[in-house]
């Protein structure tokens, strides 16, 4: 398996000839946020067999990025998201949606994808009344992967996700605060410990930041990746942590 981190929560998972793209943000801007680290993802980043969308927030369901995605790729989205996609982008995109809820499974090529619960704000706000249950995804290939989306810890995390090999886990945010429904480096390490991953890649940090606030709380921009690695060493030193830079890939053995 090959995993590429394009920045924020956008990754490509490639295994057994199948390519999945998570929460694609393929531009240099999201409203008031700009990409501060790493180049804008190249055209190849949008090449995939399916997209996994975790929730409705604009830094995860980034409607502006949809035209950069393979035109025949399935869009696996939380139940209720297709209405938002139809209203904004039309039937060319909403007709490709496969809506799922926790426990639902979808097969894409050689990979079995299971939607799992994420504890996070379900609304599209601030400019929309749309809402949908946030999700993470378990991808069963060789190895297995948990893409957490945005979530906080919850009691049934380990039971619902099951034991996995690789965790793509959020460790930060995109601004000078981190509200409820997110994992910081310490809670992210605990989440990885609970799901029993042998390898972890921190995501959702060190990419976007509000325009004009570059020097506000800089400790929340780049350091969460290394802080997660240190926290993971404390929680379970057997876990291999790969702190990537945007555009970098790793090979994960079966």
Automatic annotation (TrEMBL):
Matching entries from Pfam families are given as: Lactamase_B_2
Superkingdom of origin? Bacteria
Q: Which residues form the Metallo-beta-lactamase domain?
A: 18-205
SUPFAM superfamilies listed in its UniProt record: Metallo-hydrolase/oxidoreductase
Q: Which UniProt keywords apply?
A: Hydrolase
KW Hydrolase (keyword) present: yes
Database matches in InterPro entries: Metallo-B-lactamas (IPR001279), RibonucZ/Hydroxyglut_hydro (IPR036866), UPF0173_UPF0282_UlaG_hydrolase (IPR050114)
UniProt-recorded Gene Ontology molecular function terms: hydrolase activity
Q: What is this protein called?
A: MBL fold metallo-hydrolase
